[in-house]
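Archive entry. Fields below.
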Amino acid sequence: MIVNFIPAMGKEEMEMQLWSYIDKTCSDAEAQRIAALVAGNKQWQAAHQQLLALHRTLTVIEPGQPSMRFSKDVMEAISVAQPVPASKSYVNPWVLRGVMAVFVLLLAVIFIYTLPLINWSSAARPAMPFRFDLSKLDIGKWWMAIAGVNIVLLIIFLDAFFRFKTKHAR
Amino acid sequence: MQEQIKDADIIQQVLKGQQAVFSILVDRYGHFVFTIALKYVNSREEAEELAQDTFVKAYRFLADFNNKSKFSTWLYTIAHNTCLSFLRKKQGITIAADEEQINMIAERSGMAEQASHLGESRSQKKVLAEAIHMLPPADAELINLFYMAGQSIEEIGLITGMDANNVKVKLFRARQKLRSIIEKYYRDELSYL
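PREDICTED_STRUCTURE:
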């Protein structure tokens, strides 16, 4: 009976819900609601039948068949392929953690530097409660610090890379 | 007998150096990978090459498979990316997705002409396969992954790099397009739809 009072719904929205119901991708409550609609509303019932027919047909589609030689060709190609060691064996997690720590540290420094500059008592300019005084920031010094850290990381990375290359060349 | 060996066990054996065991995975998933590739290229030869590339990549990077997803999902992800890379290199195209392009694709693949000359009785499976082939590749891939390869919405999301809701909507649109194609070209043979 409730289904007679459902608000008017576009065909696309109805089909979207029906597909969710057919695919079982909706919640239990949603499935119950749609099942009631299908049982009690002719429009929903007809659409459900139509979509269900397509769904059942699609479930029996068969994959294409490659040639008889396919498996043999693949195995021949594999016989000359070199397996690559797991990336975790040559990507040092400490290097990644180091890079992450540098970024976190950088953000923390910027935050700490900015915090005292905020004028908490200023009500005149609520949209911009603080002024970032760029003249106080020594860009050259910062740049050198970041470049220095990057150079160290690059050296660590190159070291790890050449160690890996040497190990696998043996 | 082969079907009873779990993918994870096969992978372990391959990683221990038993290369020949990999053929079980090739036999198990070869036709699915081939079908995915066939949606992106028109020739069987190219599709086989792409499927072969997929398996070679899977073999080479097998040590990186972490068992968090199904092997098939991981393999289809490689297949999907291999096909897209191939198309980008070959044509520099973006995948057709507009409804209006269905006719163009159908004409290009000669399916529209075939469809108008359907006289002899053919199996419904074959007719349906033809109809799916007329879809834009991305749509055909979604339908194949969902129905033929038995991948869930979430797994398709992993394969194609889309979120689950996006997959749901795109699958919905793909089925709508498929119905339009059936209505237009295969009304007599699939009249019950």
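CURATOR_NOTE: Residues 93-121 of chain B have pLDDT under 50 and may be disordered.
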